[in-house]
Design a protein that fits this description.
- It is a single chain.
- This protein is of the alpha/beta class.
- Helix content is 35%, strand content 18%.
- It is built from 13 helices and twelve strands.
- The strands form three sheets. It has an eight-stranded mixed β-sheet, sandwiched between helices. Strands 7-8 form a two-stranded antiparallel ribbon.
- The longest helix has 14 residues.
- It is globular.
- Bound molecules: alpha-D-ribofuranose and calcium ion.
- The site of calcium ion (CA) has 10 residues, from helix 2.
Amino acid sequence: MPNTEEQTRQVGLSPATAVKPTRLIIDCDPGIDDAVSIALAVGSPELEILGITTVAGNVGIQETTTNALGLLAAFGRDEIPVAAGAHRGLVRTKADHRFVHGENGIGGVDLAPARRTVNSEHAVDFLSNILSRHGPRSVTIAAIGPLTNIAMLLALRPELIDNIEELVIMGATAGGGNITPVAEYNTWADPEAAQRVFTTVGLKIRLLELQITRRATVDQGVVATMRAESPRGDLLADMIDGYEDRTPDGQPLHDALAIAAIVDPTLIETRPASVEVNTHSDSQRAETVFDFGPAAANSNLQVAVEFDLKRFRELLIARVAGPVQGE
Ligand code: RIB
Ligand code: CA
């Protein structure tokens, strides 16, 4: 949708320097931090959201899809299509993440039923059809759940890789895990899919791994501000109240940092690396080994190594509180 001059001014860009919005598809498993990510995205004029695809992860595919539809309706953006994807990982069975995100995946918050129904296309067909309609390097995909849909897209339609401007992923860990001592949840849920995606040649990837995203926290002060700022903020605050992922510095909104890095790439600092996913072991399932050495200097994969927490929190509050784009 076009940006008005006022909208561009609101985000600190003068009309003359306003850039064309980034065309974005969000592949997700809502999920409380996924929900905050969608709220951030619909409040950001830098993004043109072409669609949301869902995958089984935090909760089952029916629930992640119902949550995505309900969130867009609650945010006044139910013109954005939602296409449902994989019910399970490529090879292994997995547990869901209800103990973190609640039984319904969004902290027990009841959303009004969405008027819009799920798209008739499978998520992989939806992704393929959108990419086919756009030219080279023209659509960004944010992958903030298990990578099953993305791996299937790359395997089924490799000729469309060139139309992906960038794949921004929340996943993997350069240190300890959050679902096992060695593995991060999204990668653990489908290790084979992650290996497929991380090793795809010619695909520009930015990776937000757990040791960075676990620091992308909101504390009670930020949550209270969000709650006071807008009905959207109030709804998200209710969800965050039910979010059982906690650190001494607050509750980490892993996925929201990935979206924030698309809205404002200067929020993060990255370095080239290669990543290997352990797909051969059960005890070390989905352990991810990073190589930042000289051999990875020309890697197509850029890994976040630092970010600005203050500016992340400021952006979150401003966009959750601000007008919904396309309203
Ligand atoms: O490890 C964090 C990831 O797992 C996030 O995407 C969160 O939504 C959960 O799915
Ligand atoms: Ca997620």
